Amino acid sequence: MRATVLHAPRDIRLEDVADPQLHLGTDAIVRVVAACICGSDLWPYRGQPAPAAPRRIGHEFVGLVESVGADVSTVTPGDFVIAPFTFQDNTCLLCRRGVHTSCVNGGFWGVDDKQGHQTDGGQGELVRVPWADGTLVATPSQPSQEMVAQLLTLSDVFPTGHHAAVSAGVTAGSTVAVVGDGAVGLSAILAAKRLGASRIVAMSRHEDRQRLARQFGADEVVAERGKEGGAAVREILDGIGADFVLECVGTGDSMQQAMYSSRPGGRIGYVGVPHDVTLNVPAMFGRNIGVAGGMAPVRSYLEELLPDVLDGTVTPGDVFDLTVPLDQVADGYRAMDERTAIKTMLTL
Amino acid sequence: MRATVLHAPRDIRLEDVADPQLHLGTDAIVRVVAACICGSDLWPYRGQPAPAAPRRIGHEFVGLVESVGADVSTVTPGDFVIAPFTFQDNTCLLCRRGVHTSCVNGGFWGVDDKQGHQTDGGQGELVRVPWADGTLVATPSQPSQEMVAQLLTLSDVFPTGHHAAVSAGVTAGSTVAVVGDGAVGLSAILAAKRLGASRIVAMSRHEDRQRLARQFGADEVVAERGKEGGAAVREILDGIGADFVLECVGTGDSMQQAMYSSRPGGRIGYVGVPHDVTLNVPAMFGRNIGVAGGMAPVRSYLEELLPDVLDGTVTPGDVFDLTVPLDQVADGYRAMDERTAIKTMLTL
Description:
In chain A, 29% of the residues lie in helices and 26% in strands. By secondary structure, chain A is an alpha/beta fold. In chain A, helix 7 (207-216) links the parallel strand 12 and strand 13.
C-alpha cells in the first residue's frame, strides 16, 4: 500500500510500504476513505523536532472496515468508521473516567502498540487498528461524499475544540473568547456555540478565518493581540472579560493572551499543544483563574457529537478549505505550512 | 481601643489606637467577640515581606454590631455577625458572578477602602466595616460560647477549604487527596467529606494533625512527600491517583506533590497562598490535568455553609487547638510560628 512518510523537515513523501496485517484478535484493518493534516503534524514537518529516522505520519482518518480479528464485535467489514487520533480499549479504569488518551492499553497512530506491533499512520491507504472495539465508531449507514468531510473532523479537530469548551466548563448563556483562528480555534467556536454560549469573541487577524469564525458562531472579532487584545475583549464583554477562554494555540503568548481575556473567576480551556508554556500561579491566585484541558479524549465525545454532525446541526467540516488526493499530500502540507489553507483534506 | 500592630518581623504588639468612626452611610462598626490568626498572617510576621511601617493586622473575626450608617439595612446594632476576610458590596458584576474577592468596591481589612478611609485589622476590639450590607452575615440568634469558635471559621479557613474542593469540582463518590495539614488543609478535608467524597487521603506527618484529619473525614493518611507521596496516593486510589487534589500549602513542592497525586484527567484545587509557584503546561497536557482555585470568595459561600455549622453537621471550629485572650496575641503568633498550635483563637 501507499502511505505518507516524513523523511526530514519539509521532506514528506507518499511511498510504498508493507500492507498491515491483523496481529491480534482485537485488531481491525481499515481502508482509509479520507484523512487530513493536523496543525500538530506541522511541528515535526517543520523540524520541531526533526524525525530521527523516516516515520509514518497522520492521525485523523475515516474509512471502511476491511477485516477484523476474532475478538472484534462492534464493527464488521464494510462499516464506515471514524477513528479517534488515539487508539484505546474503552474499558480500562481511565477510559471509564473519560480520559481515553491515558488508556492503559492505548497509543498513537504510526508507532508501536503496547504488544510491540507497528501501527500505521492515518495518511495512508490502510491502517491496522488495535483495540478496534474500543477505538472505532461506525456510522449507522454509508455517508454521502459531503458528509465524509464532516465526519472526518470527528477524528480530532472538532472534538478537540469541544474539549477546550468542556474543560473550561462553557455553559448556556456564558461569554466566551477564543484564542487562535486555526482549525482548532474555529472548531472551539462551533463547540462553544453548540453548548449555548451567548456571546463569543474570536481573536483573529485573517479575513477568511474571521468569516468562518462568524459562520461558526462568533459574535465579535478582535484583531489585537496581547494586552491590547485582552483589553478589547474586556471592553466587549461587560468590562470584565470572558467567563471562559479557549486557548487553541499552545504558545506562551497565546496563554498570556487567554489570561488577559479572562474575567476574575474565569476558566481557561487549553488544547493547543503547548511548547514552553508556564503558568504563574501567584498571578492567577488573586483573580481566581482556572486552567483545564489537554489532549482531547476524542473517543469519549463521539457518542455525543456524532448525531449532531449526522443531522447537520453542526457542520465542522466547513473548516476544510483545501482538498487534494493522497498522492498530493506534500502539497497539502505545504499549503498548511504557508497558511494558505486552514485545513487540508486528503481523499483516496 | 486596643488593636494588634505588627512592627517588625516577630515584633507584634497589642496597642492603643484610635476608635473607628462611621465614615459612610454604608459603614458599620463591629465590636469583635473573637478573632483568629491565619497561616497567611505568618508571612509578614516572619518578614516575608517585613512591614515597611507598623501595620494593623488580622482578617478573621466575628462580633456584635455596635452601630450602622444610614444606608445599612441588613444588620442592626446587637446582631452577631460573621465578617469574611474581605469586604465587598455583594452587588457588583463580579460579586454577582461569585468572585467577591474581586469586588469593584472591595478591599482588605487593615488597609484603606476605595474611598480613602482606613479600615481596621480584625485582631482588635473594634472594626469599621465598609459595605456592611454586602459584607456582614448575621446569625439568626446569639450563639453559645462553643458556637462562636465554629462560626469564626466561616470568616476564612473553612470557606477556604471549601473553595479548594469547589474549585477542583469535588463530587459525591469521588476520590480526593489533600496536600497540607494546616488549618486550611484540614478544613479542605472536612469540605470534601461534606460534598460527598467517598475516599479521602490526607498527606500529613504530624500525629495531632493526622488525628484531626481522620476526625474530619480522611480515610487514609500518607506521610511520604514528593514523588513517594504521589506513589503512595496512587497505590491507595485504584493505582491511578485522586480524581481531585486539594493543594492547601502554596509552595512549588506542594503543587508538584499535588500533580504527582492526581490521576490523568484530575483536577487540582489550589488555595495555598502561592509563593514562586509555576506550572509546566506541557507536563499537564498529556495527562489532562486542570488547576483552579485562588483566593476564596468567602462571602459567596456563607449562605450555603452557615446552616450546616449552626446545626452541627460540621464542626470546623475543632481546628482551634489554642485559645488565648487578645492581650496575649503575641503568644498566639509564636505558637503558630513554631507549629505548636494548628490554629489560634483570640478572645475578647
